[in-house]
Design brief:
The complex is a heterodimer of chains A (about 475) and B (about 120). Chain A is an all-alpha fold. In chain A, about 75% of the residues lie in helices and about 0% in strands. Chain B has a single domain, classed as Arc Repressor Mutant, subunit A (Orthogonal Bundle), CATH 1.10.10. Chain B has a three-stranded antiparallel β-sheet.
Chain lengths: ~475, ~120
């Protein structure tokens, strides 16, 4: 900090001149503080008030204003340390600067090139990895089951490796992460599953979820117990999803053009695209999307909360219309298998909107219309979930348990429990009986339930349902 | 006497909640009171009080409100909530258990321990 502006003036006639010098010093300190993105304007007002109190008291005790200023600033503590504490507390405000490495040092723009190279290496491993089984005669056409069960391993092992490198995860944690991935390999490949067995499809859906949460351990630098880090990971998940969709759309357009222009000159590029470009590109894009989230964050950061705000009201209208129609016509849900999946997806989307709304919210902000909207969203989803459960139940009563129906039932129960308690906590928040952070901690704590269920489906379902 | 960082950190929450339990207050006054209560032995880095207050607010143990004279500088006041009272009571139970245990061991040590030279 620059202290030059204050020539120490002794003597009787200082009064206003020294006050002005003091004001200038305080102004500089405040400006310095405001440049830190960790501190909001309200925070710096609060700290400035503190500094002025401190100076007032010291001058009353007989110190000169500039001495008082120095001492007050010293007592305030190093601004680095203070803003790091603010950053840990308010990660929703600036999770972008906080690449949370083990020491909690804020990331600097220095080793950009190295970061880029490692990212490219990991993406390349993902892209090449998916073609290695082809060397052993496994083709996409004949061994779809193998690829379906294993694609998440090919995509997420390199991603976890990238985070382990970037966050300098502790060796013990690396061991845990590696062990969990090994468990994934076992779950995907040990059981004798046919290409079209139901449990193959279930594994293909659930293993990515289980492994994505393992990636979360690496993302959180091993601090997976911390609810703030988990919330960061939830935010990160939403951002990756947005980036991935954007990349997929762009990639789709590009390949369509390419196939088209090659056909114009009489070359059929479709085999090349379906065998190489598509699978390799899709896997490499996972790493690239994750890297982009860290790198170009501010672009998306403005988009995700906006998307949440746009779609939450629309979803509320759609769900309420559906509930209204069910009540009006008196028709229960007539469940076919694919319809059931559709409802599960709707509930997952609702949960995503809720999670994203929570993660982008300043926890101490006052209650607003959006909180009511979220409450309406959760309650209507809850009603639909109950209807779906009734339908699943009657189907199970009629046809008995199968792998698919049991998985659907479990998922619905998990979502029901989550939504019911979320509704309760939101109500408590809206009626001023509980702080918002209860809901936040409920959601971050619940991640464990998803992980447990996904692992159960992957590891226990195939033997339970006789590998069909 | 210097009190270690860990002890300062562990005692921060019950101290702040305890002070706020006596009435609403603001950062600087809270810090002054901590100094007075400990006879100046508990030294906090001033700036670190605020992240702590914000955490307590997020957890719902305290509430805050900005207040100030018209045109004057505003100040953020904190007040304890019911949940904060409960948390304070809980912390108090835990701390008395710790203090009791320490008292016992020190009394034992005095009664039966080896006599030190200067105790005569």
């Amino acid at each position: 900090m620059d202290m030059d502006g204050t020539a120490p003036e002794g003597g009787a006639s200082h009064g206003t001149a020294e006050d002005a010098a003091l004001e200038a010093q305080i102004g500089e300190w405040v400006a310095y503080m405001r440049r830190r993105r960790e501190l909001s304007a309200a925070d710096s007002d609060e700290l400035e008030d503190h500094l002025r109190n401190s100076i007032d008291e010291l001058t009353e005790a007989g110190l000169e204003p500039d001495e008082a200023f120095l001492i007050a600033v010293k007592r305030m503590g190093s601004l680095d340390e203070v803003s790091r504490e603010f950053a840990r507390e308010h990660s929703e405000r600036l999770w972008k600067q906080l690449v949370l490495t083990g020491g909690g040092e804020p990331a600097k723009a220095g080793p950009v090139r190295k970061d880029l190279l490692i990212m490219i290496a990991c993406a390349a491993v993902a892209a090449i990895g998916i073609k290695i089984p082809a060397l052993f005669g496994l083709t996409f056409d004949n061994d779809l089951g193998f690829y379906g069960r294993n694609f998440s391993l090919f995509a997420l092992v390199p991603l976890a490796a990238y985070f382990i490198w970037r966050n300098q995860v502790r060796p013990a944690m690396i061991g845990v992460i590696a062990a969990l991935f090994a468990l994934g390999v076992i779950g995907a490949n040990v059981y004798p599953l046919d290409n079209d067995a139901d449990t193959t499809i279930l594994t293909a859906i659930h293993l990515p979820i289980a492994l994505w949460l393992v990636v979360g351990i690496a993302y959180a630098s091993g601090e997976w117990r911390s609810d703030r880090r988990r919330m960061d990971f939830i935010r990160f998940t939403g951002e990756v999803a947005i980036y991935y969709v954007l990349i997929a759309l762009g990639g789709g357009v590009l390949t369509a053009f390419t196939v088209g222009v090659f056909r114009a000159i009489g070359i059929d590029a479709e085999i090349l695209v379906s065998q190489w470009v598509l699978p390799c590109g899709a896997l490499a894009a996972v790493v690239v999307a994750a890297w982009l989230v860290g790198w170009k964050q501010s672009v998306i950061e403005n988009m995700a909360p906006v998307l949440t705000r746009v779609f939450t009201p629309l979803f509320v209208v759609a769900l309420l219309a559906f509930v209204g129609a069910v009540i009006w016509t008196g028709n229960g849900i007539d469940i076919e298998r694919d319809v059931l999946i559709l409802f599960d997806l709707v509930l997952v989307a609702v949960l995503g909107l809720l999670l994203y709304g929570i993660s982008a919210r300043e926890p101490a902000a006052p209650r607003g219309w959006f909180d009511w909207l979220q409450f309406a969203l959760v309650v209507s989803a809850l009603v639909i979930d109950v209807l779906v459960l009734l339908a699943v139940n009657s189907r199970i009563a009629e046809f008995g348990f199968s792998a698919n129906k049991t998985a659907a039932l479990g998922e619905n129960l998990i979502l029901l429990a989550n939504l019911a308690w979320s509704a309760w906590l939101l109500a408590a928040f809206l009626w001023r009986r509980a702080p918002f952070s209860r809901l936040e901690r409920w959601q971050t704590g619940y991640l464990i339930v998803y992980a447990a269920w996904a692992w159960i489906v992957v590891l226990a379902f195939p033997p339970i349902f006789d590998f069909v | 006497m210097h009190i270690t960082k860990d002890l300062v950190a562990a005692s921060a929450t019950p101290l702040v909640l305890g002070i706020l339990a006596e009435g609403e207050s603001y950062g600087y006054a809270i810090l002054k009171q901590v100094g007075d209560l400990s006879g100046g032995r508990l030294e906090w880095t001033d700036g670190l009080l605020y992240p702590l207050l914000h955490r307590l607010e997020r957890l719902g143990h305290v509430e805050s409100v900005w207040r100030g004279p018209e045109g004057g500088r505003r100040r953020k006041y904190y007040r304890i909530t019911e949940q904060g009272q409960a948390e304070l009571a809980e912390q108090r139970r835990q701390w008395s258990a710790v203090v009791d245990a320490l008292q016992n061991i020190w009394n034992d040590a005095q009664a039966s321990g080896p006599k030190l030279a200067w105790e005569g």
